[in-house]
Specification:
The chain has 8 helices and 15 strands. By secondary structure, the protein is of the alpha+beta class. The protein has one domain. Strands 1, 2, 7, 8, 9, 10, 11, 12 and 15 form a 9-stranded antiparallel sheet that branches. A hairpin with an 8-residue loop joins strand 10 and strand 11. The termini are far apart.
Length: 291
């Protein structure tokens, strides 16, 4: 029957459309695509961070309100156990002893998604999945503000002399592919210094998922990591998970506690919080402002 109809041009187009819709439905059902994580074609709930990494003994994950960034972070899929950290060019990161797990998210094909960029990537992917498009925008180091809504409308950013300019050179495009290109533009012109200026001060004793430890200077070597999850015990003591990218651009990975195979960090007694590749002052913890 289908074969007979297939030979008729008009009905062939109709059948192709029906098959495409059916295929999309299959992908989006069961263990298929999840609109919260659109870069993935196949999302398995059992690979979510909250499923793969149990809370420490005597602790439970803190309650979060509906729509909180932290709930989205908890659902991020992890690659299979034992996966290495790879650079943007698919080479292995020199150190393979510092990560607990690797987040299943693309790095891109260029050396762009480094430390602050990984933080920006996770925050904006969350906002995009929530359709909070008007909240997606970042100031570059130069002070130029890059709005995703304007990018989506067709405005593109280019360098003219020593200044960045915005020019409408394309039509409307609300796809995730177009959004990903916007992020590459942000990664090119923003960094730890510009990101730090956009964040609000926080306090290590009340650490929350989505908080950022960030050392950002106008010049010099800097770094940023993001709090992925937080657990608390009966007396209010908190522990937390950290993730990072680094230089060169590489897989976003969950960090081990230095000298341990565990990934749940304790709030330090002193003024320094040590991670495998950077020491942060406890006053360097920041939080995204809710617009």
């Amino acid at each position: 029957m289908l074969y007979c109809l297939w030979k008729r041009p008009v009905k062939r187009k109709i059948i192709s459309l029906i098959l495409s819709i059916a295929a999309a439905a299959i992908i989006l059902s069961g263990s298929g695509g999840d609109p919260r994580y659109p870069w993935l074609g196949n999302y398995l709930k059992e690979n979510a961070l909250k499923e793969r990494i149990p809370a420490p003994e005597g602790f439970r994950r803190i309650d979060l309100p509906e729509g909180h960034f932290g709930l989205w972070l908890r659902g991020l899929p992890l690659k299979k156990k034992g996966s290495p950290v790879r650079l943007y060019n698919k080479r292995l990161k020199a150190r393979q002893d510092i990560h607990y797990a690797v987040i299943d998210i693309d790095t891109g094909k260029r050396d762009l998604q480094q430390c602050a960029d990984a933080v920006i990537r996770l925050r904006t992917e969350f906002l995009w999945s929530e359709e909070r498009f008007d909240e997606i925008g970042f100031n570059f180091v130069s002070g130029f503000y890059a709005s995703y809504e304007r990018w989506r409308e067709g405005c593109r950013i280019r360098m003219e002399g020593s200044k960045l300019k915005e020019e409408r050179t394309a039509g409307y495009d609300g796809t995730h592919e177009c959004f990903r290109k916007y992020l590459d533009a942000v990664f090119t012109y923003a960094n730890t210094y510009s990101l730090k200026k956009e964040l609000a001060s926080s306090y290590i004793r009340t650490v929350m998922p989505g908080d950022v430890l960030i050392c950002g200077r106008a010049s010099g070597y800097c770094h940023a990591v993001i709090v992925m999850d937080v657990a608390e015990n009966d007396v209010g003591k908190r522990r937390f998970i950290l993730a990072q990218s680094y230089m060169p651009a590489q897989d976003i990975h969950i960090l081990k506690v230095p000298g341990s195979d565990d990934c749940w960090y304790e709030i330090p007694e002193g003024d320094i919080l040590s991670t495998p590749e950077w020491d942060f002052g406890i006053d360097e913890i920041k939080r995204f402002r809710e617009k």
